[in-house]
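Lab notebook: predicted structure, single chain.

Context: the supervisor wants predicted structures on file for every construct in the current expression panel, including those that have not yet been purified. This is the next one on the list. No modifications to the sequence; it matches the entry in the shared construct table.
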Amino acid sequence: MKRITQRQMTLHHAVSIVGGFLGSYTIFNHFDFFCNAQTGNLIRLVQDLCRGDLSLVWFMLLGFVTYCGGNAFYVLVRRRSRLSMKIVSLIVTSAAVVIVGACPFITNHILACIPLVFAAPVQWNAFKTAGGNSSSTIFSSNNVRQASMLLTKYLFVDKDKATLARARFYWATLLCFHIGVAFGCLTSMWLGTAAIWFCFVPILLSALAYYRYISAKWQAAALVGH
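Prediction complete. Output recorded below exactly as produced.
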């Protein structure tokens, strides 16, 4: 069981690199648009409405609807498909990367990110927990909260090794996410929008981590069967 949990957390950290890469890629290449979450984008939408600047409003609304569509897709596919939603997420993310990479002629920054906007909530929902910890692989707010609170609790409250282990998980998630951010930034500085193809590096790492995780589950099931 411990081996399965460790590999599940490794998978979570690998996918966090994907999330960091895509967030960095879209912010760097596409007018500071963050494909992974909607908070900042909706603030920009309301600000533009208040200013009477309608130039990007329809595109921001399209991003919002697409993000909602990604969540709806997850709910419906999870109910009807026999495939693991983790595999579905990696497939959807891969397809989004191919679409974005194959369409460099789309000059509107938000429109160019729409496939990634759809993939982000699918990833969030598919990889929302690991080792009993609730953690996002596509943005950092809750991970920062959990990492700082758990470390404080360990240092000044209970000295519990379980608390320290959970703190390490969240700090590792933050580290992996920002490794992805750095990778997305450096490749974008080098290649511009063509850097999107490098996202397949963390995607393949995630696929390998998923295989190792499932293999551990199969081996545990076989032992129980004997």
